[in-house]
Amino acid sequence: MPKFLFSDKELVNSLQKIPDGSVIAISGFNISIAPEYLMLKLYEAFEKTGHPNHIFIESDSLPGSPGRGIDYISKEVYDSGRTDFLAGVLVPFLGWAPWLQKLINEEMIEGYTCSIGSMAHWFREIAAGRPGLLTKVGLGTFLDSEHDAGALNGKAREKKRVGIETVNLKGENYLFVTAPKPNVSLVRGTTSDEIGNISMEKEGIYGTVFSITQAARAVPNPGIVFCQVERIARLGTINPKAVHIPGPLIDYVAVAPPEFSWQTDSIVFDPRISGGIIPPQFHRKNSISGITAKSIILRRSSLEIAREIQRAGRPLIANFGVGIPSEIPGVLENENISDYIYSTVEAGPWGGIPLTGDDFGVSIGPFAIIPLPDQFTLYEGGMIDVTSLGFMQIDREGNVNPSMLPGRMPGPGGFPTITNGSPSIIFAGQFTAGKSDIKIENGSVRIVEDGEPVKFVQSLYKVLFRSDIALRNGKRVIYVTERAVFELTSKGLTLKEIAPGIDMDRDVIGKMAFKPHIQGEVSIMDRRIFVQRKLGLHPMINGIKKGNLSES
Which H, E and C letters describe 63-120, residue by residue? Predict the structure, then answer.
């Protein structure tokens, strides 16, 4: 039976007993299911007593958002210079943690990363007593042992606390991921009963909470688990099927103040996120309010998805990444074809409307929510049909760096696993970076002011998508921008379409660091995209059975 901690003092006293140098696993997909209360009190224990110190944090994604959770603690460490608290981190995504990035970029702590899917599956391997994770995700990229092996800075390359090595089994190469086994886990649920059974009924996702719990408790060297909850219930009042973590696996239960149990960074509680209410189908129908560079990308990507539905002759399982791709489901809904897409989010939701920005990870009105490791098993195993993801840099071979630049190291997120598994990939983003002024007038595109940083470059800063592996695996890959569409062919990046009003030499090739391959005549992008009305995608797939069985 766990010890219940009802006051700050009790919690701080318990946390300060964590051994110095501990490896602490923490759940969290941004603020969703992040044990923010436990994290802040952990740092408070260190400030008061100096213990625990030199800890190493591991997470399945990122337990925080700008100014909250791990990012708040990182700012405290940075401002105070107390790096004796934090030795390093292994996290797949740092995009919403600018202060954590500063600690890593300025070599104040060790920084390691890998794919969200690899990290979630690694926790399961450790929970089963196995030494690490065997995967093909990341082969040939900066995660490969021939490159950075997931090290984000010099301190990590020197310490080598996390290892990624290439191994050959039956003639095929794999990556073998190893890291220190956690001896402490900090996780979050909604309700604990009197013997510590944990349910998650108000959470928007399950994440990797159960596997992170198991990883600490597994042999050798079983550790301890702290769980943050909102409330305590009487034994027997939680449905056994609703118990996500059995009580005997929990050592301490802390009841957190309400301000530390938000569903997302900006949402305290919305029952539609956690499955309490199914919103009406018409909840997000809206008119098209002007055509912009971003809406061109969204509309052209949506057109491509409609074509994928046509090819398959059935509804598709899809994934939409952060940034511009996360807004594609809204276009599909306005086009009345959302019933032909089962959208998924990395954290576990199926269906509904995915939230964006700092709230990314949950959906409004999903029809299913599964644990994050299971979601990534689907991705890695190729059980989705199409994905749309963003990009930062693309080279002449069609290789992609989604987000990493010197001084900006947000990590790979779910990108490597999703691109590894999906048979059809739509990379979507603006043609150049930085400030630009792009007008859409009378169905044509006019570049008034272009962004300065070139995104189509000779050499990528970090490679996270290998085009040769994609071609070898028979993937269909296109690259959508507001002025041009490219396709991956055996000749590399091949220009297929340009927007009406665009001068190919001046506005496309002239803004690239290389000349793309051109095969035959370059087409004009579908003119429907540039007119302020619906594209009319529904007639393209008329006759295909919907995914919405109630209306089929």
Answer: CEECCEEHHHHHHHHHHHCCCCCEEEEECCCCCCCHHHHHHHHCCCCEEECCCHHHHH
